[in-house]
Amino acid sequence: MSVHVYSSSEELAEAAAREFAAKAEEAIEERGHFAVVLAGGSTPEATYGILARDYIDRIDWSKVYVFFGDERNVPPHHEDSNLKMASEVLLDHVPVGNVHRIRGELPPDEAAEAYEEELRKFFQTEDVPRFDLVLLGIGADGHTASLFPETPALEVHDRWVVANPVPRLNTTRITLTIPIINAALAVYFLVEGEDKAEALREILEGDANPRAYPAKLIQPHGGPKWMVDQSAASLLGEL
Ligand code: 6PG
């Protein structure tokens, strides 16, 4: 695991875009393509915007295959859709090889099954898929992707994608499961804002049960890379 603290959210976004480009270049050189999982929520928007603006000619976008870590149970043009956000700031502006979206307009179980099927076709393996990079965020409650505290998806080890009921939001979200995220070659968390400081302290330094802070369960080989701004890092001990 590594933790990198940036003095502002702009610096964080610049650094995250740089790291994304470096991972893309490395994956394309070594494996011929870059399979990347995008995070939803608002934090990555700035990073996606920088990629669209400054990296249009610096990444071989035709070899970039885009996936999503989670989706809300809404159609693709809905305000809450993670696809909509990513499309508006990034995917509509760069010529990516393919966008593998989660079909949030379907009943959640069907959407999860369809996405798992799509991943199996792409990766051509019965074993776990290995994404080149998974981008994630955290919520102030310690959730990541749509792996919310004390929800059934935290126990799932035999599926790649599941529909996860989230009673506190009165909805069901579609999410990659923990073993699939943990099998990725790299996992980066982007975290900003004071409202995340308490959760970040608990995730990185606390001893609460991981079921209460699911981001603790994300443990890929070598650990995740945490890219955080100063306000989110404000409660951390000496780094
Ligand atoms: C989503 C997510 C989710 C997100 C965090 C942080 O679909 O909402 O993928 O896990 O990353 O909730 O969201 P913010 O960046 O909006 O704080």
Layout: helices, strands, pairs:
Elements: E1 2-6, H1 9-31, E2 34-38, H2 45-54, E3 64-68, E4 70-71, H3 82-91, E5 98-99, H4 108-123, E6 133-136, E7 161-166, E8 171-176, H5 178-182, E9 187-191, H6 197-205, E10 225-229
Parallel strand pairs: 1-10, 2-3, 2-6, 3-5, 6-9, 9-10
Antiparallel strand pairs: 4-8, 7-8
Bound molecules: 6-phosphogluconic acid.
Residues 39-43, 69-70, 82, 137-139, 143-145 line the site of 6-phosphogluconic acid.
Description:
With 239 residues, this protein is of the alpha/beta class. It is 31% helix and 19% strand. It has six helices and ten strands; from the N terminus they run βαβαββαβαβββαβαβ. The protein has helices spanning 9-31, 45-54, 82-91, 108-123, 178-182, 197-205; strands at 2-6, 34-38, 64-68, 70-71, 98-99, 133-136, 161-166, 171-176, 187-191, 225-229. The strands form two sheets. It has a seven-stranded parallel β-sheet. It has a three-stranded antiparallel β-sheet with strand order 4-8-7. Strand 9 (187-191), helix 6 and strand 10 (225-229) form a beta-alpha-beta unit. Helix 1 crosses helix 2. The longest helix has 23 residues, at 9-31. 6-phosphogluconic acid is lined by residues 39-43, 69-70, 82, 137-139, 143-145.
